[in-house]
Amino acid sequence: xxxxxxxxxxxxxxxxxxxxxxxxxxxxxxxxxxxxxxxxxxxxxxxxxxxxxxxxxxxxxxxxxxxxxxxxxxxxxxxxxxxxxxxxxxxxxxxxxxxxxxxxxxxxxxxxxxxxxxxxxxxxxxxxxxx
Length: 131
Hints:
Radius of gyration: 14 Å
Helix content: 25-40%
CATH class: Alpha Beta
Strand content: 25-35%
Number of helices: 3
Order of helices and strands: EEHEEHEHEE
CATH architecture: 2-Layer Sandwich
Distance between the termini: 23 Å
Low-confidence stretches: none
Mean pLDDT: 94
Strand order of the largest sheet: 1-2-3-4-7-5-6
Number of domains: 1
Structural class: alpha+beta
């Protein structure tokens, strides 16, 4: 959907319309992604930090592709997690799978007391700028 020089994308999850938000919005050359969760196309969460993280980054990549962007365009990420140590280990293990050069992405890892979905352990917010 495109309005007023903004373009929005959805992943087709029921909670998008229930809560009322876009998964991704592009204005100019910048894209803001709402917090991405480790769910599949049916909305089912993967099990555990590592699996949810890998799936969340797959959802991120899918949304960026819809704007003709890649993970190379990501400038900032914020990871909200229930367990900082588990997230640190998983992100360290998979960082170079997500990004060709993780040293080009500003990354913040925040431990929180809870997330919205039952069994959810991670949510990742992204900002990307078309290169």
